[in-house]
C-alpha cells in the first residue's frame, strides 16, 4: 500500500499525532471534563508506545488529576439526579 503524496512530497507521519495532541490539549485547557476519558486513553497509548516520551511523574500527575476531575463530575451529576428524584417524590406525595 503506498502513501498518498501531496504536491509530490510524502505527508509527515507525525501530523496525525500532533493533531490529536492539540485536540487533547484543547480539551484539558477548556476543562471539557466529558472528554477527559479520551485524553486519558491517549495518554495511556502514548505511554505504552513510547514509555520514555512522558516522565513517570508527569504521567502520574496528569492521570490522577484527570481521573479526579472525572470522578468529581460523576459524583456531582449523581448527586443532582438524587436531589431531583427526592424533589420529584415529594411533589408526587403532596
Notable features of this structure?
single chain; mainly alpha; TINF2; TERF1-interacting nuclear factor 2 N-terminal domain-containing protein; TINF2_N; telomeric DNA binding
What is this structure's SSE topology?
Elements lengths: L14 H15 L6 H14 L6 H38 L1
Helix pairs in contact: 1-2, 2-3
GO molecular function: telomeric DNA binding
GO biological process, one term: telomere capping
Pfam families: TINF2_N
Describe the protein.
The chain is mostly helical and 94 residues long. It has one domain. Helix content is 71%, strand content 0%. Helix 1 (15-29) crosses helix 2 and helix 2 (36-49) packs antiparallel against helix 3.
What is the H-and-E element order?
Answer: HHH
Number of helices: 3
Global morphology: elongated
Strand content range: under 5%
Largest sheet composition = none
Detail the poorly predicted runs.
none
Q: What is the total tally of β strands?
A: 0
As for the number of domains, it is 1
Could you report the average pLDDT, rounded to the nearest whole number? 81
What radius of gyration results from the CA coordinates?
A: 21 Å
Structural class: mainly alpha
Report helical residue fraction: over 70%
Amino acid at each position: 500500500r503506498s502513501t498518498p503524496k501531496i504536491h509530490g512530497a510524502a505527508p509527515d507521519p507525525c501530523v496525525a499525532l500532533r493533531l490529536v495532541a492539540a485536540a487533547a490539549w484543547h480539551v484539558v485547557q477548556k476543562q471539557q471534563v466529558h472528554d477527559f476519558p479520551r485524553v486519558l486513553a491517549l495518554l495511556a497509548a502514548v505511554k505504552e508506545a513510547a514509555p520514555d516520551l512522558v516522565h513517570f511523574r508527569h504521567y502520574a500527575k496528569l492521570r490522577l488529576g484527570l481521573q479526579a476531575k472525572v470522578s468529581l463530575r460523576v459524583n456531582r451529576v449523581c448527586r443532582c439526579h438524587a436531589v431531583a428524584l427526592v424533589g420529584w417524590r415529594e411533589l408526587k406525595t403532596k
